[in-house]
Design brief:
Helix content is 41%, strand content 19%. It is α+β, with helices and mostly antiparallel strands. The strands form four sheets. A nine-stranded mixed sheet has the order 2-6-7-10-1-11-12-13-14. It has a three-stranded antiparallel sheet with strand order 5-4-15, with no helix packed on it. A two-stranded antiparallel sheet has the order 3-16. Bound molecules: zinc ion. The site of zinc ion (ZN) has 8 residues, from loops.
């Protein structure tokens, strides 16, 4: 496809994409949604099953209270209105991994509706990049856009078809029903998403919020978070939506973005070539970077939805709702604002420090314990995250704990150690895989030298050993001061108090 040709580029500018996302999130309950089977991932195939989740005749579903509470909590975090009464419905279709022949879901009366997520509105890449680097403080809040959430509903997962991993996999497909009946929420967005970048941003924020509520681990490799994208294009200014295609089963946010980029270009090219978009389900091949038609897309009426006769309407009354709301944590956006307010960190710092709840909790504890929270924030970013990134590790694997960071920040703050000494000690911590306080002890609690007479001696030696530089300095080249400071620091093995060195040198040279 010649999507990079000039005609295509011109054509693309006259169309606008319309994107809506459907995200399935597995809830972290211990048992399934309608029976007491375990939801544990990685159990041997078909061991976590019972007559209910196998769809045996006469077996009756019993709703898991915890699943309702988790779903409600997630919906609240996504700013949804919780419907007091919602109805479970049968969604009828045949698939080998769906033994009942229907999935219990919610249809016209879902658990929650009318929510939203704030995302950073997408801009042209170059401009965005420039803003990111030049003005990180201004990044958040200025161009935020609200993406509507149509609904959040509860449903059960289907089983899994295994097409590989067995000796006869080339001719047979195996079925694992452990996942059948695992509780899911489906989060359906409004078609408010205008670009693939915005879709990526929406998914990132969504995952962040869900992780904060701790109702799911959002592990994409294990299928705890799955995303389908609906996308259509229409001439700019046109009100009616174009025909949409659904891209299914994309297993990373990056691939979703790539799949959307491809699919938008494909649809424009079809329309420009005089063709018509067919409503269909497409699969993304990440190796080729292309989407392929899988099947024509079902309409809702194809599923013959009807209310599930074996389950009563679900009622989440005010009292229950209030109880659930108590478990609602401070969400990332609010936490960022508070970090800026309470600890004097920048918006950008706050963004980095709240990227996971665990990091944010640890940072907050350290910031509160330390004399200067701002210094803790700086150390986390400049010294800790950088070193972790270099070894491809997450914050959970850091040898230096947040307590360690706080302790080191206090040592610098009080002048006991210099910035250079801190860097060296951090290096040792990473080398030895030990926390900062331990390494600090092992190194004999090093102190930067504030012993004036000892430092004066070093200053004298350094100045005496560099007559040329001294001459330049006295001839007016004041930048040579840096050279002398460096020499003294080196001679003191980094342990001299830089401020004191500066003072002594200025006196001596002047
Ligand atoms: Zn079961």
């Amino acid at each position: 496809m010649s999507t990079t040709s000039d005609t295509s580029v011109a054509a693309r500018a006259t169309y606008e994409p319309v994107i809506g996302l459907e995200v399935h999130v597995q809830l972290l309950t211990e048992s399934k949604i309608f029976c007491s089977c375990s939801t544990r991932f990685g159990a041997p195939p078909n061991t976590n099953v019972c007559p209910v989740c196998l769809g045996m005749p006469g077996a009756m579903p019993v709703l898991n209270r915890k699943a309702v509470e988790f779903a409600t909590l997630a919906a609240m975090a996504l700013n949804c209105r919780i419907n007091e009464t919602s109805i479970f419905a049968r969604k009828n279709y045949f698939y080998p991994d769906l033994p009942k022949g229907y999935q219990i879901s919610q249809y016209d009366k879902p658990l929650a509706e009318h929510g939203y997520i704030e995302v950073e509105a997408s801009k042209k890449n170059a401009e965005n990049q420039k803003l990111r680097t030049e003005n990180r403080e201004l990044r958040t809040g200025l161009r935020s856009k609200r993406i509507g959430i149509t609904r959040v509903h509860l449903e059960e997962d289907a089983g899994k078809s295994l097409h590989e991993g067995f000796p006869d996999s080339d001719e047979k497909t195996a079925i694992d029903l452990n996942r059948t009946g695992v509780p899911l929420i489906e989060i359906v967005s409004e078609p408010d998403i205008a670009t693939p970048d915005e879709a990526y941003e929406y998914l990132t924020r969504l995952k962040e919020i869900i992780l904060y509520t701790a109702v799911s681990d959002c592990n994409m490799e294990e299928g705890s978070l799955r995303c389908d994208a609906n996308v259509s294009v229409r001439p700019r200014g046109q009100k009616e939506l174009g025909t949409k295609a659904e891209i299914k089963n994309v297993n990373s946010f990056r691939f979703i973005r790539e799949a959307l980029v491809y699919e938008i270009a494909r649809q424009i090219e079809v329309i420009e070539g005089g063709g018509k978009i067919v409503q269909e389900t497409r699969l993304y091949n990440s190796h080729e970077g292309k989407t392929y038609s899988m099947r024509s897309k079902e309409q809702a009426h194809d599923y013959r939805y009807f209310p599930e006769p074996d389950l009563l309407p679900l009622v989440v009354d005010e009292k229950w709702k209030a109880g659930i709301a108590q478990a609602l944590p401070e969400l990332p956006e609010a936490r960022r604002a508070r970090f800026v307010r309470e600890f004097g960190v920048t918006e950008y710092d706050a963004q980095v420090l709240t990227v996971s709840k665990s990091l944010a909790d640890q940072f907050e504890a350290a910031a509160k314990a330390a004399k200067n929270p701002k210094r803790v924030a700086n150390l986390v970013q400049s010294e800790l995250l950088g070193r972790l990134k270099a070894r491809g590790a997450e914050i959970e694997q850091s040898p230096i704990s947040m307590k360690g960071v706080a302790a080191s920040a206090d040592l610098v703050e009080s002048g006991a150690i210099s910035g250079k000494m801190l860097k060296d000690l951090y290096d040792l911590s990473f080398e030895r895989n030990k926390d900062f306080p331990e390494v600090y002890e092992e190194e004999g609690r090093p102190q930067q030298s504030s012993d004036t007479s000892a430092l004066e001696k070093i200053v004298d030696e350094v100045v005496a050993a560099s007559p040329k530089q001294l001459e330049q300095y006295r001839a007016g080249k004041k930048t040579m001061l840096g050279f002398f400071v460096g020499q003294v620091m080196k001679a003191s093995k980094g342990q001299a108090n830089p401020q004191l060195v500066n003072e002594l040198l200025s006196k001596k040279l002047g």
